[in-house]
Amino acid sequence: MTITVLIAEDEALVRAGCVMLLEATADIEVVGEVGDGAAAVERTGSLRPDVVLMDLRMPVMDGIAATRAITEISDPPAVLVLTTFNEDTAVQQALSAGASGFLLKHAAPADLAQAIRHCAAGQGWLDPAVIGGVLTALRRTGPRAHTAPAALAELTNREREVLTMMALGHSNAEISKQLFISEATTRTHVSHIITKTGARDRTRAVVLAYQSGLMN
Question: Which of 105, 50, 102 is closest to 81 using CA atoms?
């Protein structure tokens, strides 16, 4: 199945580079390009892509506001945010706005397609270089009163354990090794966690873990 992508990036050179990389990938199709956040929201509504590749710093409407608007539409696409090392505050805001993944602009080219695949599959994507900042932001924000612990009530003890490790930034491989279970079993647990909590993807499940007080 082909994954459709809308690219929202105001720097023409960066946008062209993303298009060039993705056009060489058989399972990903770029269906649109825009240079500002307002256009990203409008084109998302008309094109209905699977993933929106979103820059944070754009004219007319910034990437954070555009992400919030896009994730509030019916059956929204995943939003994969392009970020840099010095945008921790913006990353936190994009996370709160509903972003599913974060990718450094100067990440390895192969990571772009991989991140898009993960977001399209509901797995989310946190670039290893930004995980620390994302988790720090979540810890700083703390639990939200309106996010009831009941959101986690249906999870088994093992699923809570897996979610806790996810929230600490561990990959499926790391979780499997520490819990002495297969990666297939870990993937099943992650899938059950996402379904039971109503989270849209892995990243949102991690956000829920912090907002519900599980990580206190």
Answer: 102
pLDDT band at 110 (very low <50, low <70, confident <90, very high): confident
Distance of CA 128 to the CA centre of its chain: 13
Q: Which two tokens stand for residue 39?
A: 């256009």
Q: Rounded mean pLDDT of 53-64?
A: 92
Q: Could you count the other beta carbons within 10 Å of the beta carbon of residue 164?
A: 15
Q: What does the alpha-carbon distance between residue 143 and residue 117 come to, in Å, rounded to a whole number?
A: 30
Amino acid code (one letter) for 141: T
In this predicted model, what pLDDT tens digit does every residue of 19-31 receive, in sequence order?
999 989 999 999 9
Q: What is the CA radius of gyration of the chain?
A: 17
pTM for the model stands at 0.82
Q: Which option is the CATH number for 143-211: 1.10.645.10, 1.10.10.10, 3.30.390.50, 3.40.640.10? A: 1.10.10.10
Task: Determine phi and psi for 173, rounding to 5 degrees.
Answer: -65, -40
Specify the CATH number of the domain 3-139: 3.40.50.2300
Higher pLDDT, 124 or 9: 9
- CA 53/CA 102 separation, integer angstroms: 10
> pLDDT tens across 86-99, in order?
666 777 788 888 89
Q: CB–CB of 91/102 below 8 Å? A: yes
CA separation for the pair 78, 85 (Å, rounded)? 22
Check if the beta carbon of residue 33 is closer than 8 Å to that of residue 11: no
Cβ atoms 32, 14 nearer than 8 A: no
